[in-house]
Design goal:
Number of helices: 1
Radius of gyration: 18 Å
Helix content: under 10%
Number of strands: 18
Order of helices and strands: HEEEEEEEEEEEEEEEEEE
Distance between the termini: 39 Å
Structural class: mainly beta
Strand content: 35-45%
Length: about 260
């Protein structure tokens, strides 16, 4: 949908914060020494600095050519003995697409209808076609499991924009490692978002005039990965129109080894 005030885009809230699923060892030193054997629950909770810190690219955030990077830290659960998980968000552009100053910036108060902000991906001066796209590489400091989040506000407006979104997971740090597709479901009972998230069938609205209103979850795509991933590749582009374009990423929930 066209980029509006922050309240225009809101994201699905992530899964609730939980305690580690593996208990601490009897003594702190022994537990710390064996942190790689435990599994802890983490979250990128965009609305809670006690759980998550985030630093966007330098102002203007995502504009200009070249790579722009946002840095997030999922803080380890208190008393778990686990170390934090850092996550980088590397944005690059291909073709003539332009990123706006809100790219890789947290925005909104009810993104996707769940009462919190989201990490925005934004374009202007649109040119139709996949040859003009933003590529976002999301890299975790160590492999994560049970990863889940939503991509919010996948929609369209005739003559303005027509969102197209692809997503692939990697077990390692790059495309040479094993790839997997996420298990994806809509967050709405109505079928608004079509496709499977692949290059040949990107997630997209069902027609070119499917503009999702503020606070609605109808344009959300909930994605989960059933096995471990370390890197995600998200490709975002426009298939029709020349207006402004924005989607957002909701809170992330995942588990990881303690160190």
């Amino acid at each position: 949908m066209a980029e509006l005030a922050p309240s225009r885009r809101t994201l699905v809230r992530g899964a609730a914060w939980s305690v580690p699923v593996v208990a601490m060892a009897a003594t702190a030193p022994a537990f710390a020494a064996s942190c790689g054997s435990l599994t802890a629950a983490f979250a990128l909770d965009w609305n809670n600095t006690a759980r998550t810190t985030y630093t966007p690219p330098a102002t203007p955030a995502g504009t200009g050519t070249g790579k722009k990077t946002g840095y997030a830290t999922a803080l380890a659960p208190a008393g778990s003995g686990a170390s934090n998980v850092t996550v980088t968000f590397d944005s690059t552009t291909v073709g003539t697409v332009s990123r706006t100053a809100n790219n890789l910036v947290l925005g909104g108060t009810n993104v996707g209808g769940t009462g919190g902000p989201g990490l925005q991906l934004t374009h202007d001066n649109l040119q139709a076609g996949r040859g003009n796209r933003q590529e976002l590489l999301i890299t975790f400091s160590r492999p994560v499991t049970e990863l889940s989040f939503s991509i919010a506000d996948i929609d369209s407006s005739s003559g303005n924009w027509y969102d197209q979104v692809e997503l692939t997971g990697y077990t390692g740090s790059g495309a040479a490692s094993f790839t997997q597709s996420p298990v994806a479901t809509t967050s709405s009972t109505s079928v608004v978002v079509w496709g499977d998230g692949s290059q040949s069938q990107p997630w997209r609205p069902r027609n070119d005039s499917q503009n999702i209103g503020s606070g609605s979850s109808a344009g959300n795509k909930l994605v989960t990965f059933t096995t471990a991933v370390k890197t995600l590749s998200l490709v975002y582009w426009n298939s029709a129109g020349n207006g402004n374009q924005v989607i957002a990423l909701t809170d992330f929930s995942f588990t990881s080894k303690g160190c």
